[in-house]
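Supplementary Methods S3. Complex input for the dinuclear copper ion-bound model.
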Amino acid sequence: RYEKLWTVAALLLIVGLIATVTYGAVGPGVTMVDDSGGTVDAQSLGDTEFSDPGVTQVDNNEYEVHVVARQFLFQPGTAEPIRVPANSEVTFYITAADVVHGFELAGTNVNTMAIPGQVAEVTVRFDEPAQYGIVCHEYCGAGHHTMAGQLVVV
Ligand code: CUA
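Predicted complex, serialized as C-alpha cells:
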C-alpha cells in the first residue's frame, strides 16, 4: 500500500538529513588527522603534543596551535588567551579530553568539532592584529554555555 511507501520515504529523508548535517559539521575544510602516528585517546593525551598544548612556531610566519577542549575550558584559550603574531599562517590541531566539544573562532571560517580520540586540523591566516572569541558550539554538559576563550593576534 502507498502508506507504507510514504513511511519508508519519510524515514529515508530523515536519515539523509541527519547524514547531511553530520557531514556538514565535520566535512569541508576540516580534515580529521592523526597527529601522533597512533590514535589519540583521552587517556594518552600525555604522550602527545597535547600534553603541553599551546603555540609552536614552525617556520617564518607559520605557527601550530595545539588545543585541548574539556569540560568546560579550552587549553590554551580560556585561562589565558592564545597569542599569535599578525601576518601569520596558523594551523590549529584540536582534540577533546572528555566529551565532544566545538571550536569556533568567531568572525573567521574556523569552526570545527573537538572529538575525543580524533584531531581536527584547520589552517587560517591572520593578517592584522585582532581579538577573536573562541566558542564551544556543541552541547557538552552543564557548563557548556560558559565554555569560551580568546585568541589574540598581536
Ligand atoms: Cu564544550 Cu560545549
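The pocket of dinuclear copper ion is lined by residues 69, 72, 101, 136, 138-140, 144, 147 (CB under 6 Å). The domain at 30-153 is CATH 2.60.40.420 (Immunoglobulin-like).
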